[in-house]
Amino acid sequence: MKITSRTEYGLRAMVYLAARPGDAPAPLTEIARSEGIPAPFLERILAQLREDGLVKATRGASGGYALSRSPDRVAVADVVVALEGPLTLVDCVGEDRSCVRAEGCASRTVWRRIDEAIHEVLAGISLADLVTEGERR
Amino acid sequence: MKITSRTEYGLRAMVYLAARPGDAPAPLTEIARSEGIPAPFLERILAQLREDGLVKATRGASGGYALSRSPDRVAVADVVVALEGPLTLVDCVGEDRSCVRAEGCASRTVWRRIDEAIHEVLAGISLADLVTEGERR
DNA sequence: GAAATCCCAACCGCGTGAGTAGGGATTATC
DNA sequence: GATAATCCCTACTCACGCGGTTGGGATTTC
Fold first, then answer.
1. What sections of A1-137 are H helices per DSSP?
2. Cβ of A122: how many Cβ atoms within 10 Å?
3. Which chain B residue has its CA at the smallest distance from A12's CA?
4. Which nucleotide does the CA of B65 lie closest to, via C1'?
5. CATH code at B55?
C-alpha cells in the first residue's frame, strides 16, 4: 500500500512545470537534474503523462515539455490516475467481475469508502495549490 | 497502490470470527474453508494477528482462534496496520527523513493529507459495524 | 549539417507478494 | 496413555512488477 516512485516523480515533475516561469518548454534533462530524477526513467513517466494529455512535448532543439492545461485545471488525481492506474485499493471494488463472494462481503464497503475518501482528497488539490504551497516555505 | 491479499484475507477472517456465534474458538481449517483462503497462508496471517494481540489461539484438539477483544473494540485500522504496516503512502511522510528535499517539497503535503484521510476512515469502522452491515444483506 | 531534443523498444536485477511443504509441539477426548 | 485434532515454525519456490539502464532512431532549430 505504497505510492510508486513513478507517481511521486511524476507529481514532482508536474509541480516543477507548473511553477516554471516563461512559456518555453522545459527540456527533460533540466527537470531531471533539478528534481534529482534519473533522466531515462523520467522520460518514460513523461511519455505516460503525454499519452494521458497532461503534458505536451515539442521536439527538436529548444524543445521540451510543458503543461497542456493551466495548473489550476489539473488535479493531483489526474496525475496519480495517469501513473498509478485507477484509484482502487482492491480490484473487487472496481468494475470488473468481483469475487464470487461479492454479495455479503462486508469488507468491500470498507475499501469502497476509502477509495472515495482518497479520491475526494486528490481531486480537491490542484497543481496551482501545490505551487503556492511550495512558495510559502 | 493496492491492498495486499494478506490484508484482505485477514480482515475477512476477523469479520468471520466476529460474526461467529458461540464461545468456542474456530479452527483454522473452518475459517479457511468457509472464506475460501488457502489454509497454510491463512495460518501465517493469523500468526501475525496473534502477535499483534488481535486474536488469541488455543492449541490442541477443539482449539482454534478467537478474537481477543469484543468486535466493537477492534477497528479496521488495527487489522490493516497489523498486516500492512504503517498507513503511509510514501516513506518520506513518516519519521524517516530520507528525502533530502523534504523542505519545500509541496507533494509531501498531498501524501500526508491522504494518509490522514485513510486513517480517519479506517479508525472509524469497527468489526462490529461490518458484521451488522453484512447481516443487512 | 550539427546539435539539441523527444521518441521508442528491449533488457535486467532485485525485492516482495502469494502460496507450498513438511515437520514439531500441545491438548482434548476416549 | 494413545490418538487425533489442532496450533506453531522454518524454509522454500515461483511469478511479477518496480526501478532503472542501454542504445538507437526521428524531429527540429540554428
1. 5-19, 28-35, 39-51, 76-84, 107-123, 127-135
2. 20
3. B107
4. D7
5. 1.10.10.10
CB A87 within 8 A of CB A1: no
- A49: containing domain: 5-135
Report the mean per-residue pLDDT for chain B: 92
For the CA of B123 and the C1' of C6, the distance in angstroms is 47
Number of domains in chain A: 1
- Contacts with B102 (C-beta within 8 Å, 6 or more apart), sequence order: B92, B108
The three three-digit cell numbers of residue B67, written as one number = 478474537
Tens digits of residue pLDDT in B67-119? 999 999 999 999 999 999 998 998 876 654 456 665 567 888 899 999 999 99
Residue B97 CA to residue B102 CA, distance in Å, equals 8
This prediction has a pTM of 0.93
